[in-house]
């Protein structure tokens, strides 16, 4: 099981640091304010002793603290207590000599894979009985002892934070038919698979990093050993492999194999070499507790020589500006230079202080070089030890309130329009699953999961997915809209990002008026809803019967149109969902989708900033309906233009009320009902004048379109 949280016994901590007289709640508060979340605390009966256990979560960048030794050192910094003298390495001159001789001939590793790699054979085991004190510490940390060499492996991980891999040395030698071999870190090459200690088989790629003895595959580096060479109760000789692998490489391999282990979880947090050799010596000493006659031999040893640690300048004035005043005895004051120096000392940072310039030159210990690299990191550490709750918190005085920019104003207008049409605002992820055969998509170099591996090129697929999920859960199809960014690429390293507005409506039956039966929106009614929105925004558009290639598989090939600005620029798309897609997803074919360029709409609104007002007529309107049957080959747009030519200036509005096709209508014909509104600004219109105009319109429509008038 992968360790995501750490269980630590206070008795174990007390062996490393004097905390026996500290109040438990006070300790938990110190840890919490110091950035370590204490999830829980409870008592556990181990043998005849009752122990208090803390469940602690550490931040992702603090690999140095995910161990008993590390958390004890951190607690010591927070409560201003020094850890006891290190007792890990006693009577180890022999072991240190072995390592030093090997390290004097070390190779330089490729840091993109590994910064340390040490392998040691341990032979002549007689008694592998695990000490009771070690078992108790495993139990207190939530690990079940198995009374084998595995217990030593688990213990050193919990105590020091460094994972070591154990192999059965006799099994390796039997397969090689020789006692001497070369252990190497290399790529899988011709090895296609490996069966791990969890009985699962893993397919290996040619560039998967592995550990081999000659050409014998021992393990996937940093993740899992080959089951064939795993240790068991009969193991009498060991091959111990210790390494510091590159965190990025481990994450990539872990993702490819779909595997995460205790060992890989540690490497993912960027371990460094700080106490690596000391931890290895500690492990070898543990193995010698009941086996004083065992023999050690180094078979491989390489470490990258770390560059000298550079000092970080820390300026007192910057600390005051960032952390602000502190509270002491109910009064505001400033943190002093002496306090800061004490905090740096508690963190084991080497430093020199120049009083005249109020500046420190700080050298960070090697255990913290990965997470403390800038002055602001040092300031955060000072604030953490002083206690962020001890600094004054207040809002700054604001001289004036910020104004809404035009982009925000445009979004507010659009949101109001959509909400008034009954749509709900949606929010979707910008990361989607990779689309096959789309060369314009922007792919992530290192995605976490395949379903979030590509930046979206359109808002519509995610909106359709939302509809599908609602239908599956038994909900009514949701009508919604979304503001979001879309991405594309036309050439290597050339990326485009635009903000779009997309949405959907329709897909369920509704009443247009109280006297009608419920029915789905027709294509023309749906198109009219969108036209109403643009009319409210005072943006004139015109429709064009084309469909861009991007929407081929999403929108209906014959019920889709793009809308353009009067300048001819492509502005967006509207259409009915593709019937094949609707059937595959089991959603209504009467779903209507739209998407348009938010930036173009915003720019268009900028040109319409001057409001235009029309004079209101004091004279009454005369409304007339005109119903007729016409051949479908004639477009309504042509008919409308013909009527307006005849209707004179008093024809102020023309609306298509109804379109009907049925058994009573001749084949290839349609019945249209048009409402004409007449009004004059100068006088009251007489019915006789309007009737004459209507007759003229009817006569023209008969001549030009061969209509059949309906009564």
UniProtKB/TrEMBL annotation:
Signal peptide annotation: none
Cofactor or coenzyme needed: Mg(2+)
Keyword terms, alphabetized: Aminoacyl-tRNA synthetase, ATP-binding, Chloroplast, Ligase, Magnesium, Metal-binding, Nucleotide-binding, Plastid, Protein biosynthesis
Binding-site list for Mg(2+): 371, 377, 380-381
Keyword Nucleotide-binding assigned: yes
EC nos: 6.1.1.20
Pfam families named among the record's database cross-references: B3_4 (PF03483), B5 (PF03484), FDX-ACB (PF03147), tRNA_synthFbeta (PF17759)
Assembly with partners or alone: Tetramer of two alpha and two beta subunits.
Family according to the record: Belongs to the phenylalanyl-tRNA synthetase beta subunit family. Type 1 subfamily.
NCBIfam families given in the database record: pheT_bact (TIGR00472)
Protein name as catalogued: Phenylalanine--tRNA ligase beta subunit, chloroplastic
Species annotation: Guinardia striata
Taxonomic lineage from the root: Eukaryota, Sar, Stramenopiles, Ochrophyta, Bacillariophyta
Gene: syfB
């Amino acid at each position: 099981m992968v360790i995501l949280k750490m269980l630590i016994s206070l008795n174990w901590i007390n062996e490393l640091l004097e905390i026996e007289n500290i109040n438990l709640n006070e300790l938990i508060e110190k840890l919490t304010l110091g950035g370590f979340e204490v999830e829980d605390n409870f008592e556990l009966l181990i043998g005849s002793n009752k122990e208090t256990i803390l469940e602690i979560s550490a931040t992702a960048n603090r690999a140095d603290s995910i161990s008993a030794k590390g958390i004890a050192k951190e607690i010591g910094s927070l409560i201003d207590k020094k850890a006891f003298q290190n007792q890990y390495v006693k009577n180890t001159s022999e072991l240190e000599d072995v390592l030093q001789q090997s390290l004097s001939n070390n190779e330089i590793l490729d840091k993109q894979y590994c910064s340390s790699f040490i392998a040691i054979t341990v032979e002549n085991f007689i008694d592998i009985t695990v000490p009771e004190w070690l078992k108790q510490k495993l139990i207190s940390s939530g690990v079940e002892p198995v009374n084998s060499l595995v217990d030593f492996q688990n213990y050193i991980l919990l105590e020091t934070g460094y994972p070591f891999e154990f192999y059965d040395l006799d099994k390796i030698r039997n397969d090689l038919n020789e006692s001497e071999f070369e252990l190497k870190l290399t790529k899988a090459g011709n090895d296609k698979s490996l069966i791990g200690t969890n009985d699962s088989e893993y397919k290996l790629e040619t560039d998967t990093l592995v550990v081999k003895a000659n050409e014998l595959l021992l393990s996937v580096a940093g993740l899992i050993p080959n089951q064939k060479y795993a240790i068991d109760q009969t193991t009498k000789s060991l091959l111990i492999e210790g390494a510091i692998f590159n965190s990025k490489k481990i994450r990539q391999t872990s993702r490819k194999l779909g595997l995460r282990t205790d060992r890989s979880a540690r490497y993912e947090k960027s371990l460094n070499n700080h106490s690596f050799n000391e931890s290895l010596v500690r492990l070898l000493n543990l193995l010698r507790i009941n086996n004083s006659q065992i023999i050690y031999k180094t078979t491989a040893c390489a470490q990258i020589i770390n560059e000298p640690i550079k000092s970080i300048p820390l300026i007192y004035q910057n600390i005051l500006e960032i952390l602000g005043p502190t509270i002491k005895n109910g009064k505001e004051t400033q943190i002093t230079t002496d306090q800061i120096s004490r905090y740096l000392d508690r963190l084991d940072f080497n430093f020199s202080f120049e009083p005249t310039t109020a500046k420190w030159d700080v050298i960070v210990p090697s255990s913290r070089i990965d997470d403390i690299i800038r002055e602001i990191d040092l300031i955060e550490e000072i604030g953490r030890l002083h206690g962020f709750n001890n600094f004054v918190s207040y809002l700054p005085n604001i001289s004036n309130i910020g104004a809404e920019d035009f982009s925000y104003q445009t979004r507010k207008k659009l949101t109001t329009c959509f909400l008034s049409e009954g749509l709900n605002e949606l929010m979707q992820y910008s990361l989607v699953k990779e689309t096959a055969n789309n060369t314009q998509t922007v792919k992530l170099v290192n995605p976490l999961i395949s379903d979030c591996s590509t930046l979206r090129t359109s808002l519509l697929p995610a909106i359709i997915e939302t509809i599908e999920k609602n239908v599956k859960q038994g909900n009514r199809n949701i009508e919604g809209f979304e503001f979001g960014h879309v991405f594309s690429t036309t050439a290597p390293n050339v990326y485009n990002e635009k903000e779009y507005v997309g949405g959907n409506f329709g897909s369920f039956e509704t009443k247009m008026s109280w006297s009608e039966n419920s029915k789905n929106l027709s294509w023309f009614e749906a198109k009219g809803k969108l036209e109403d929105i643009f009319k409210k925004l005072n943006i004139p558009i015109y429709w064009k019967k084309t469909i861009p290639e991007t929407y081929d598989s999403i929108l209906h090939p014959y019920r889709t149109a793009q809308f353009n600005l009067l300048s001819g620029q492509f502005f967006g798309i509207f259409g009915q969902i593709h019937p094949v897609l609707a059937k595959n997803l089991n959603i209504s074919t009467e779903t209507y989708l739209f998407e348009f360029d938010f930036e173009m709409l915003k720019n268009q609104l900028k040109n319409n900033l001057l409001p235009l007002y029309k004079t209101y007529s004091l004279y009454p309107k005369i409304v007339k309906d005109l119903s007729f049957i016409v051949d479908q080959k004639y477009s309504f747009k042509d008919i409308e233009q013909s009527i307006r030519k005849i209707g004179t200036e008093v024809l102020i509005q023309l609306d298509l009320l109804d379109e009907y096709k049925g058994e009573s209508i001749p084949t290839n014909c349609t019945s249209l009902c048009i409402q004409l509104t007449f009004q004059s600004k100068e006088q009251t219109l007489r019915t006789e004048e309007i009737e004459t105009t209507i007759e003229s319109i009817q006569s023209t429509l008969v001549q030009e379109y061969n209509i059949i008038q309906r009564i």
